[in-house]
Each structure stands twice: as C-alpha cells, then as structure tokens.
Amino acid sequence: MNPSRKPLVAANWKMHKTPGDTVSFMDSIQKETGPCEDREVVIAPPFTALAAAKQVLKQRGYKISAQNCHWEEKGAFTGEIAPVMLRDIGCEYVLVGHSERRHIFGETDEMIRKKAASVFKAGMVPIVCVGEVLDEREAGKTFDVVGAQVSEALNGLSATQAEKIVIAYEPVWAIGTGRTATPQQAQEVHAFIRERIGAIYDKEVANRVRILYGGSVKPDNVDALMSEPDIDGTLVGGASLEVSSFKRLIQFLK
Ligand code: PGA
After folding, report:
1. Which of 73, 98, 152, 244 could form a disulfide with 109 if both were Cys (CB 3.0 to 4.6 A apart)?
2. Is 98 among the residues known to form the active site?
3. Annotated catalytic residue: which of 40, 100, 152, 170?
4. Thinking of the domain 8-250, which architecture would CATH place it in?
5. How far is the CA of 180 from the centre of ligand 1 (A)?
6. Which pLDDT tens digit goes with each residue over 123-169?
C-alpha cells in the first residue's frame, strides 16, 4: 500500500448468503471492527441481500457493492438489473467483469467497458476485475492479456472517471484454488497496470487509481500482499464469508 491511496477491502460473496445471513454477518463484523477511518470496507452480497445490507450499515467506512449489472438504464432485458436501480438502494460500487462473469457467462471486454461506463453514469464506481488464466501466464502472456483488459475497460472514460476507478487484479489460477500469487508476482502486475494507466492518461491519474489484489487472499498472506507498494487492497471471496477471517483481512498490517 501507499499512504496516498485509501486502502479498500472488498468482500465478494458470490452466490452465498440470504438477506438474513447478511444482516447477522454485517451486525457482527461492524460490532467487532468498529468504525474504519483509514480503510474502506466494501461488501458485495447477492442482489437479493443488498437492501438488507444497506439497512444495517452503521459504521463509518463500510459500503455496499453489487456483483454485476447490465449496461442499459432500462428496457426489455429479462433478469437483468440496471445500475440506477443499484444506486437507488444505496450501492456505491459494482463489480464488473469478474472472471466468473467472463468465463462462465461469456462476458467480453466490450460488455465490460459498457458496464463500467454505465456504472459511472449512474453515480457509482466500478471495480473492474482483470487477470490471466494459467495457460496465459505459462505462455508469458500475462502483461499482454491484463494490459488489453485494462485498456479496454478504460476506453472512453474521462481522466476524472479513470482516477476513481478501482481495478482488481485477480489471476484466474489463484481464484478459489488456495494458490495465491506471491506478493512479488502480484506487485509486478500491479505496477504494470499502473504504468498502463499512466500511459493512457498521465502519472497523476495513475497514482490515484486503487488496484486491489484478489485470488485466495487469506489471513496468513494478507499482510505480505498489503506490504507491496502498488497493492491498495484486496478482493476476497472464500475468506470473506466468515466474520473471524474477514475481520482479520480488514485489520491487515495492524
Ligand atoms: P477467492 O475469490 O478469495 O475465494 O479466491 C476471489 C474472487 O473471486 O474475487
């Protein structure tokens, strides 16, 4: 982390927890951690639990995020949710382009670009996920793949929007596998992403963007990851589902 950027710890609950489970989790985690002044905590429950999560948000520093959205504002898109609907129930962030959306549901860079733009338009901030699969890493293509994903997501965004965006680098081979990137491997890609943003906009914009690491973040590796200069937070799946482990992840380097 770098003290000029506020760290962000995000919980991606994927398809877990009912509204009832969400309320009890949110009550306990906020009680146990208290207000977060120097870090932001973002919880992304399923759509059905967002309203319940919003109702029990009490502590400073806590925010809610959706896990996905459509790019249109309204219309005949059965089963989809528009960004304005998410803003209306109190979301401040939306995850966009998670690898499960890309690989299981066929989302393309173009769809992700449209989603990121529409999240901004609705007054929220997209957390855009990027990352290479194992074959790409082994073929030495990590920078090509991640660079293209980042450039495409930023395409068309103004510098004022770009500096607010959150990028989550999640090597696909590390998600849910227990196999984390080493802090050095993650730092290398984070520095590359920041450089790419600097090349598209300028150094000032690049220095403001928060870049999270995701992929098997756990209580025993979080401090080492957060000690790297370009890692500004974490996006956590499995270890965000239990209050005790998520509490430890919020309290990194304390
Ligand atoms: P994991 O998931 O922490 O369970 O690896 C991370 C993610 O998918 O965002």
Report:
1. 152
2. yes
3. 170
4. Alpha-Beta Barrel (3.20)
5. 10
6. 999 999 999 999 999 999 999 999 999 999 999 999 999 999 999 99
